[in-house]
TrEMBL record:
Listed name of the protein: Unannotated protein
Molecular functions (GO terms): LPPG:FO 2-phospho-L-lactate transferase activity; magnesium ion binding
Gene3D superfamilies documented for this protein: CofD-like domain, CofD-like domains
KW ATP-binding (keyword) present: no
Origin organism lineage: unclassified sequences, metagenomes, ecological metagenomes
Length: 344
């Protein structure tokens, strides 16, 4: 069975461990978000690709969910001692090896796809990990200037800052007015991405951030269209449980684009792929058709009350436990997602 998943960082990577446990013989392709990628101290860092690679390869820090187990930050501290910014970015000593290889390989002309495959040779994640694009497309966040600068009529000036600065330095507490994926218009899906969606038996949208992780991947020209046209069923899992994100700050992201922080709102945002549904009013702005992207949606048992409304959108919906408390719970979630996909 060929499974393709669009994944962001921590939540997506954790869910993928459950997919591998639920379908050990499946060929799993992961299309990773690269909108979070950043140049830090001259090194190219790909947080979501590395989080998937480390999590499935057994190198992830269990406590942080990102970066390496048993990490030290000596180089980071030395850079800070020199007063070199960004001091807010947690650059781990072990992690630097990954970024050095990636940066040197990029300078030698290798694509991010080739580099990611080479890095995965060591980690053996058990999936084919593809960047969403080999071209640069970076998520910037539009915020009121944190320095408090105002224009001559006293209104707060708005600036664009890199997603990582918003996420790490400001803990997403500075209200976001929107997100801009800089360069996405010129970005092409990485080799194999469209085929992985078109040739899949099932496409999964893990409980990653629907705005800055999954939403970012969907903005790469061609990817949303491939989801709409693939013969594979597309099933997503809600990252919102009981009106709050399970982790991270998806609520700040959903609010920024005018969506409620509910499992229903995210399902409506992705929209029903079937013509049966009432389209996806207010959902992701689709190019050709106004149809949405998903056939099925899993919500947590606490949100069982929203199942009828989601079904009314034309999306098959089930309420099941969605807390990834351990590998077994995550495996059951993956089994539930795969069975919802295969339901007629
Ligand atoms: N997240 C933090 O909250 N603080 C950090 O200092 C930090 C550093 C970092 C370094 C490498 C990496 O791969 C991820 C890192 N993350 C950090 C997580 C990252 O910001 C987010 O996980 C993703 O960008 C969003 O999924």
């Amino acid at each position: 069975m060929r499974i393709t998943a669009l994944a962001g960082g921590i939540g997506g990577a954790r869910f993928l461990r459950g997919v591998l446990a639920a379908a050990p013989d499946a060929e799993v392709t992961v299309i990773g978000n690269t909108g979070d990628d950043i140049w830090v101290h001259g090194l190219r860092v790909c947080p979501d690709l590395d989080t998937v690679m480390y999590t499935l390869g057994g190198g992830i820090s269990a406590e942080r969910g990102w970066g390496r187990e048993g990490e030290t930050f000596t180089v980071k501290d030395e850079l800070a001692a020199y007063g070199v910014e960004p001091t807010w970015f947690g650059l781990g000593d072990k992690d630097i090896a990954t970024h050095l290889i990636r940066t040197q390989s990029m300078q030698a002309g290798f694509s991010l796809t080739e580099i990611t495959a080479a890095l995965c040779e060591r980690w053996q994640p058990g999936v084919r990990l593809l960047p969403m694009s080999d071209d640069r497309a970076e998520t910037n966040v539009i915020v009121d200037d944190p320095s408090g600068a105002t224009d001559d009529s006293g209104r707060a000036l708005r600036i664009a800052i890199h997603f990582q600065e918003w996420w790490i330095k400001y803990r997403a507490l500075v209200p976001a007015h929107g997100f801009v994926l800089v360069g996405v218009e010129q970005a092409r899906p990485a080799p194999g991405v469209i085929q992985a969606i078109e040739q899949a038996d099932v496409v999964l949208l893990p409980p990653s951030n629907p705005v800055v992780s999954i939403g970012t991947i969907l903005q790469v020209p061609g990817i949303a269209d491939a989801l709409r046209s693939t013969s594979a069923p597309v099933v997503g899992l809600s990252p919102i449980v009981g009106g709050a994100p399970v982790r991270g700050m998806a609520d700040a992201c959903l609010t920024a684009i005018g969506l409620d922080t509910t499992a229903l709102a995210v399902a409506a945002h992705y929209g029903a792929r079937s013509a049966r549904g009432s389209g996806n009013s207010g959902g992701i702005h689709h190019g050709a058709s106004d149809h949405g992207l998903i056939d099925g949606w899993l919500v947590d048992t606490t949100d069982a009350g929203s199942v009828p409304a989601i079904e009314a959108l034309g999306i098959r919906c089930r309420a099941v436990p969605l807390m990834m408390t351990d590998l077994e719970a995550t495996r059951v979630m993956a089994v539930d997602a795969l069975s919802l996909a295969n339901r007629p």
